[in-house]
Amino acid sequence: MQVVDNVSALDRAKFGPIALVPTMGALHEGHVRLIRQARTLTDAVLVSIFINPLQFENPSDLEKYPRTPEADIEKAAQSGAEVLWRPKYEQVYPETTIALQEVGAIASLYEGATRKGHFQGMLTVVRRLFDLVEPKWAIFGEKDFQQLFLVRRMVKDLKLDIEIVAVPTVRESDGLAISSRNVRLSPDDRQAALVISRALTNASQMESIESMQDALDTTLASESEFKCDYAVIIDEEDFSLAKGDTKSKRALIAGWVNGGRLIDNMSMVGLAR
Ligand code: AMP
Asked: What is the Å distance from ligand 1's center to 149 Cα?
């Protein structure tokens, strides 16, 4: 595996079409799954690590974001990455102005309502990474479902010739969705955080939207250390609230445990129906 800070130095002819796996580092089993998925498409797997200041609305959150550069090199190589790209800030955001990406109304719902500017920052960096790498595929996790939705929509709106590949959320054996931020949870926090996946699983066993919503609310309320931001059932197709005839329903949850933000989601179209 090559570790580079500039993709313009890559021998494109040697690589052929590239599968890009964008990350912010502190690589974990979720990222590993994305890299492995990329590897099923091509040998030319390029993993990027860039902690994008534009998508952090809070400077201390950016400062505290976990960084594990040495372990990242090992994990990326072991998972099958061909290139690990760690761009410098100036390469992603050169002095010539980079226009902020238009985001549309869905970017101000849910994660976007609480984290102002987050999705504009995220889409701006993803578009820059796409411009610089020109991948044939880009791999994203369902863990960040609204992000995945907005990236897909941007690719469609801009008519980019890139296939977005989604990978299901990777969980710990007890159900907690793996996240780089989980290292900040104390054992007690971690225990409290399990209420999220429990609420999703409970809801997924219900028949009607009302009983799904009730399962989310009741389960989340049972954990006093969990402070809920939102817990909703949406239509995956357009992010509107799910209605009786919605086929592709998904529950989204976000909230805080001891000040740390956690998000998760799960399809509500399961074996129960
Ligand atoms: P991040 O480094 O947190 O920005 O995440 C980089 C990519 O990994 C995004 O596409 C995430 O959705 C994906 N990802 C993060 N955690 C998981 C997980 N537990 N399962 C699947 N994908 C994940």
From this structure: 14
Dihedrals φ, ψ of 162, to 5°? -135, 135
Mean pLDDT of 261-271: 90
Q: Which pLDDT value is given to residue 10? A: 86
Looking at ligand 1, which atom is closest to the CA of residue 31? 8
pLDDT digits (tens, 9 = 90+) for 33-49: 999 999 999 999 999 99
* Cα–Cα distance, 229 to 109 (Å, whole number): 12
Here the contacts of 213-216 (C-beta below 8 Å, separation 24 or greater) are 216/251, 216/253
Tell me if residue 31 is catalytic.
Answer: yes
* Nearest CA-CA partner of 120 in 106, 134, 141, 135: 106
- pLDDT score for 271: 52
Report which ligand 1 atom has the smallest distance to the Cα of 28.
Answer: 16
By the 8 A CB rule, do 153 and 35 touch?
Answer: no
CA of 144 to the centre of ligand 1 (A): 7
- Please give the domain boundaries of the chain with CATH numbers for all domains: 2-167 (3.40.50.620), 180-265 (3.30.1300.10)
Q: How far is the CA of 157 from the centre of ligand 1 (A)?
A: 23
148-198 pLDDT, tens digit per residue, is 999 999 999 999 999 999 999 999 999 999 999 999 999 999 999 999 999
Ligand 1 binding pocket mutation candidate from 21, 23, 28, 184 (most atoms within 8 A of CB): 23
User: Do 25 and 104 meet the contact criterion of CB atoms below 8 Å apart?
Assistant: no
Ligand 1 atom having least distance to the Cα of 25: 2
Please give the DSSP secondary-structure letter assigned to residue 144.
Answer: G
Name the nearest CA neighbour of 49 among 29, 74, 71, 27: 27
